[in-house]
Each structure stands twice: as C-alpha cells, then as structure tokens.
Specification:
4-stranded parallel β-sheet, alpha/beta, 6-stranded parallel β-sheet, globular, 12 strands, 338 residues, Rossmann fold, 17% strand
Length: 338
C-alpha cells in the first residue's frame, strides 16, 4: 500500500511539473585550526553550499574542524564514510598518508577532493592553487625588489606540511637563479603571528645585515612588527600578508612589500567543482596537471604597491582578520567539464 502511495505522489509531482530537489551530503575535513584563514575557509564553503540551496540543490555539510594529527584526520575521513557522505573535501595534513583510506572511499563510491595542499592518491583530485608557484611569485618579487642581490632569511610554516614543503621548493627554485642572493637562514614559525615576530627578532639579532625577508602569510605581520621595532622598515624588503589589518598597515607605513594570495575561498571553489561532478558531469580530457597528475589549479592573485589601493577598496567594511579571497563560481567551474 505504501509503495502505491509513493508512486502516486511521484506521478502527481511529475504531472504538475514539480521536481524533487537534489540532495548531497559532503564532509569537510580541516585538520588544523591555527589561523583565522582556516575559519574563513570554512565559512566561505558554507556560503557556497547555501548558494546551491538557493538554486534548489540541497547540500548538507558535515564539518570536522580541529587540531588533529594525520591519524586523527584519517579517522575523520572514516567517520564521514560511515555517515554515508557523497563526497569528502579535505585540507590534508599529509600528501601521501591518505592513499589507503581514499582508495576505500572510492570503492564506496565517494568522491574525494583535496584543497589547499595536494595529495598523491590517484583516487582523489585536487582543486586549489599551485603552492609551489605561489612561492615562486613572491620570491621573484623579492628578488626584483633587491635588484638580484642581498642577504635573505626565510620564515616558513609547519615543517613537513605538504603546502609548506611545496612553498619552500618554490622560493629555493627562484633564489637559486640569483648567485648574489645569499639565504642566511631558513626558520619555521608554524604559521603563527607571535612565533613569526619572535623568529624575526631572533634573526635580526643574529644577522644585522639582512636585506630581504621571504615570509609566508600567517606570520608576515609579526615579522614586519619586529622589523619596525628594530627601526629597519626602510632598509628591508619583505613579503607580506593578505589580511586587511596588514594591508592597512602596509599602506599607512608605505612598506616595501608584496604578497601572493592563497584565497580562503579555495574550499568553496572545490565544493562547486564537487557538486558539478556529483551531478554527473564529466571532466574534460587532459584537464589535470601537477606533480601527481590529479590537480586543477586555480589562479593566484598578487598584491603589490601597484594594486594595493584597489585591494583595500575591495576590503572596505571587512574585519581586520579578513583575507583577500576569490571563489570559482559554479559557472566558472563548469569550464573544467565537457
């Protein structure tokens, strides 16, 4: 009797032109919450999901966002699988450790999409920026600002993290082209502003003749505070932040800075690609690239003194922790599909 009732309801809906809404359950895994950039990343993904709902596509998000080691994040992926998600979007803590669990997800018919950091698994795709090229762009800016010569120090993120290691490879590639650029020290400050400031203070005390600083976002504001406190603002060129509070400082103090943009919107971009794939669209041939041949790279904006004023106009009304961002819309994501 129940089957007959359901069938009848379906026929009524079809005859009246009413369509049932598409529904997808998507797990979002963020294995590190050490910055407001990650918070903005999740919020932009939630906004993208809401935009799909407004189009009649119901996206249920299951979010895991906490500081966990690799095994803890693998556990989160397994939890998503047990909850019957259609897809998993992950900002991974390792490029290789997820290969077995991603294979299991694929066997279960679950689409896996990494963002922000690439993964080696052939059972996953990556949608995000090329972190190596992100570093190349800012390192090239610094090399040009120094006229191809000088003493440089670098302040990196979390040692061993896939995005960090790709960034290190990127700036080394650029600096190796300049025999008159000497890298005095490569330090780690774990994408933490306070650690970035303390590390910069230590480097300035050890190397008083620093001309340039290549520092990753998440720490650049701290590094610049140390440079200012040492009275060396006019003597040092250093990469910067994409946060509004730093952009304001950059403009007010006329800093010699430049910054590659890793948009927090990368997870939202990945979500839009994910939904199109779940709807059955097929990727174009030869669309994938990258070191693992599974990457779709997004554009990398760059902020310098040339476009700083325009960037600040776009950031008007935003809180200080807001980061310059961009999101690949569903229509723009459609370019990757047949």
């Amino acid at each position: 009797m129940m089957k007959i009732t359901i069938l009848a309801a379906s026929l009524v809906a079809l005859m009246s032109g009413t369509a049932f809404a598409e529904t997808y359950k998507i797990g979002l895994s963020n294995g590190w919450v050490g910055s407001e950039w990650r918070t903005q990343m999740i919020e932009e993904a939630q906004a993208a999901a809401q935009a799909w709902k407004d189009k009649g596509v119901d996206i249920e998000l299951v979010i895991q966002s906490s500081d966990v080691d690799v095994q803890g994040q693998i556990g989160a992926v397994r939890n998503f699988m047990n909850q019957g998600v259609n897809a998993i979007i992950i900002n991974p803590n390792s490029p290789t450790a997820f290969d077995p669990v991603f294979a299991q997800a694929k066997e279960s018919g679950i689409l896996v999409v990494a963002t922000d950091a690439e993964v080696s698994s052939p059972d996953a795709i990556y949608v995000g920026i090329d972190q190596t090229d992100w570093a190349r762009k800012s390192a090239q800016w610094l090399a040009d600002a120094l006229g191809g010569k000088g003493n440089v120090v670098t302040i990196n993120g979390v040692a061993g993290h896939p995005a960090n290691e790709m960034r290190v490879a990127g700036y080394r590639e650029v600096f190796e082209k300049y025999p008159d650029i000497k890298v005095l020290n490569e330090a780690n400050a774990n994408w933490d502003q306070a650690q970035g400031q303390q590390t910069m203070q230590n480097l300035l005390a050890t190397y008083p003749d620093i001309n340039g600083v290549w520092v990753q976002d998440g720490m650049a504001a701290g590094a610049w505070r140390a440079i200012q406190a040492a009275g060396k603002t006019g003597d040092i060129a250093a990469t910067g932040e994409i946060r509004k509070d730093f952009l304001d400082l950059w403009s007010a103090e006329k800093l010699n800075s430049g910054a590659s943009v890793n948009p927090p919107g990368v997870m939202a971009s990945a979500l839009n690609v994910t939904v199109l794939r779940l709807q059955g669209k097929e990727f174009k041939d030869d669309i994938f690239t990258g070191q693992y041949d599974n990457a779709i790279y997004l554009p990398i904006p760059f902020v310098s003194n040339d476009n700083l004023a325009d960037t600040l106009k776009a950031a008007e009304g935003k809180p200080g922790y807001w980061s310059v961002t961009s999101v690949l819309s569903p229509d723009e994501a459609a370019q990757f599909f047949k």
